[in-house]
UniProtKB/TrEMBL annotation, chain A:
It comes from Paenibacillus radicis. The chain crosses the membrane at residues 32-55, 97-121, 133-155, 180-202, 232-253, 295-319. This is Transporter. It comes from the Bacteria. Belongs to the binding-protein-dependent transport system permease family. Keywords: Cell membrane, Membrane, Transmembrane, Transmembrane helix, Transport.
From TrEMBL, chain B:
This is Lactose ABC transporter permease. Belongs to the binding-protein-dependent transport system permease family. Keywords: Cell membrane, Membrane, Transmembrane, Transmembrane helix, Transport. The keyword Acyltransferase does not apply. The lineage of its organism: Bacteria, Bacillati, Bacillota, Bacilli, Bacillales. InterPro entries: MetI-like, MetI-like_sf, UgpAE/MalFG_permease. SUPFAM superfamilies: MetI-like. One of its GO terms (biological process) is transmembrane transport. It is a multi-pass membrane protein. The keyword Cell membrane applies. The chain crosses the membrane at residues 20-38, 83-104, 116-132, 185-203, 224-246, 266-293. It comes from Paenibacillus radicis (ex Gao et al. 2016). It is found in: Cell membrane.
């Protein structure tokens, strides 16, 4: 018995020796190592390019103003401080704006996802004459640049009056500019930012879910809406999560629609575009001719940007693993 | 006995129930998309003036279009520039994202982490954050400091690359293109997040048996990429090209100009007509591209 295993071992060693003495073995080994090396270099290089701006901001944000003119300090500050964060949150009323933005983005995300799930499901199931045309409309909303309908949209919200219903109760149409209503209305009716894309993703996703599942539920006595909430939605979670993230992030970052509707810097994205001026105002003592140091200003501004995107990054870390799965199953692929 | 046919069959009922699901979207489409679209077309043919009670409209025919194309000194130039930029950027973005997706689809240590980093531009590259990036003081300081440390500037590095390419006998225009690409690498990487995501998902859905079979037949990795991966992923290339075009145009100079014409100089009619010319240019371009690519696209089913 013992000799048997020994023999086998020797056989294996011989075999290994024979393989390793061949040139082709080393050639393939070298090739694969070379590939691994190149791949590692490429991936880490590109990752660095992507992370570079964030790293810079982190470095700047923790720097003490003393380090600004120290030539030996480039990346790692000598004096760590949290003063910059404190200053930003005072100067820009940061907590309040953060809360506003989070509430707005959250509501928009919820309404938008709801509307798009419904529409996507509808589009995946109905089939009558003209349903293709209707879906063509979804694609059309993706293709038309939002600037094309910018002015009428603005005027529509400025004199908001749906089919003359509003003017029945009040004498004149209401002005919705500088309120949150336009965001809520457009997202609830599925015409918010890039909504066409979301409908498309959901429709493709639902097409991948077999019809038999719904039929079984129907036979068991569940209604159409019951089937939808109990069978279809739980199955669509990856797509829902992805769309929610997109919707939240795009609302958070959007400067186009927000800039159009909101005049005051009430939310993050409009705050960011005026941050420099606000910080300057905050740092300049009233009546004085003293001008703050531009480098210091820029440092504070970088801190502000970092604070604005940090919630997104935290959220992203949790949701990111659903990304590929949902895209794969969404059939966007096939 | 034959039962009388009452109403609709189950399948028909289901079909029409689907309409209820679409209803909110459809209402939005009519009220918030179609109406503004028609209005915008109307405004583009008229002079729009805001006053206390609302606004007044006077029809002026094609004057706005004439103004945009022949009178305004910037519009035509910005339009051609944004189109040209797009023509240059989109192929780079698509090729880069396909390449990155192939890399990310392989098995190696730290794949989850590198995927997370590669998809990060999806959330960061949009909106104001990207616009603040440029022309920032502090970042400029750090950049120049690190360049001093490494002893050469970025400009010089790409000159080296150009020299190398020239001496190996590459066509002048291609060299220019590649050097430009290297200089804009950040822009390209950050605008290809969604595209990489779509490609990775597509690569994962290609069944492994195809690769196994080709390996047994003796195909190299290079061959199996061009004979299997590329055809299988070609529908997604079409999707990604279209997505990149639209995405690229959203942040272009022209859109900025359209916005400024409307809300800074208050020429609403002119702005609307500019937007329509822009839209027409995009749709013609998209149509041509889609035609060209969809001929080559291979559908597995």
């Amino acid at each position: 018995m013992k000799t048997g295993t020994e023999g086998a071992k020797r056989g294996f060693v011989d075999y290994l020796w024979e393989r390793m003495s061949k040139g082709s073995f080393w050639a393939t080994k070298l090739k694969s190592w070379l590939w691994v090396f190149i791949r590692t270099v490429l991936i880490s290089g590109i990752s660095f390019i992507i992370l570079y701006p964030i790293l810079i901001k982190v470095v700047i944000a923790f720097k003490d103003p003393i380090d600004l003119y120290d030539a030996t300090v480039v990346w790692i500050p000598k004096h760590f401080t949290l003063d910059n964060f404190k200053l930003v949150s005072d100067a820009l009323h940061f907590p309040k704006i953060m809360l506003n933005t989070a509430l707005l983005s959250g509501t928009v995300m919820f309404l938008q996802t709801l509307c798009c799930v419904l529409a996507g499901y509808g589009f995946s199931r109905i089939k009558f004459r003209g349903s293709g045309l209707l879906f063509g409309c979804v694609i059309f909303t993706i293709l038309v640049p939002p600037q094309t309908i910018m002015i009428p949209t603005y005027l529509q919200y400025k004199n908001f009056d749906v089919l003359g219903i509003v003017s029945l109760f009040t004498t004149q149409p209401i002005n919705l500019i500088n309120t949150y209503w336009p965001f809520l209305i457009s997202s609830a009716l599925g015409m918010g930012l890039k909504t066409g894309l979301f409908v498309y993703i959901f429709r493709q996703f639902f097409r991948g879910i077999p019809k038999e599942m719904e039929e079984a539920a129907l036979v068991d006595g569940s209604g159409t809406f019951g089937t939808f909430t109990k069978i279809i939605l739980p199955n669509a979670m990856p797509a829902v999560v992805t769309v929610m993230l997109f919707s939240f992030v795009w609302q958070w970052n959007d400067s186009y629609f927000t800039g159009l509707i909101l005049n005051d810097a009430k939310v993050m994205s409009s705050m960011m575009s005026t941050a420099a001026a606000q910080i300057l105002f905050f740092l300049t003592p009233p009546g004085g001719s003293f001008k703050p140091d531009p480098l210091y200003l820029s440092m504070i501004q970088n801190t502000a940007v970092l604070m604005a995107i940090s919630p997104l990054i935290v959220m992203y870390l949790f949701v990111q693993r659903h990304f590929v799965e949902s895209m794969e199953r969404s059939g966007l692929v096939g | 006995m034959k039962l009388p046919k009452l109403g609709l069959t189950l399948h028909q009922k289901q079909k029409y129930k689907g309409v209820w699901f679409i209803l909110p979207w459809f209402a939005g489409f009519l009220l918030l998309f179609f109406t503004p679209l028609i209005n915008s077309l109307r405004y583009s043919f008229s002079k729009l003036e805001l006053n206390e009670t609302g606004f007044s409209i006077q029809s002026v025919g094609w004057a706005n279009y004439r103004n945009a194309l022949f009178v305004d000194e910037h519009y035509v130039r910005t339009l051609t520039e944004s189109m040209l930029n797009m023509v240059i950027n989109v192929p780079l973005i698509v090729i880069f994202s396909l390449f990155a997706a192939v890399l990310l689809n392989q098995k190696f240590k730290g794949r989850a982490l590198s995927r997370a980093i590669f998809f990060l531009p999806v959330i960061l590259a949009s909106g104001v954050i990207a616009s603040i990036e440029n022309g920032d003081y502090m970042q400029g300081v750090i950049k120049s400091a690190s360049q001093q440390a490494s002893g050469e500037s970025a400009m010089f590095q790409s000159l080296e690359l150009a020299k190398l390419l020239y001496s190996s006998g590459v066509n002048h225009h291609i060299v220019q293109y590649l050097v430009g690409a290297v200089e804009r690498i950040y822009q390209i990487v950050t605008s290809s997040g969604v595209q990489i995501l779509i490609f990775v998902a597509g690569l994962q859905s290609i069944s492994g048996s195809l690769y196994e079979a080709s390996k047994i037949e003796g195909a190299t990795a290079y061959e199996s990429f061009w004979k299997i991966t590329f055809p299988m992923i070609s529908p997604l290339i079409l999707t990604n090209v279209i997505y990149s075009i639209i995405d690229n145009l959203l942040g272009s100079q022209t859109t900025k100009q359209i916005q400024e014409t409307a809300f800074k100089s208050f020429q609403f009619g002119l702005s609307a007509s500019m937007a329509w010319i822009y839209f027409a240019a995009i749709s013609i371009f998209l149509w041509v591209v889609a035609m060209l690519i969809s001929k080559k696209v291979f559908y597995y089913d």
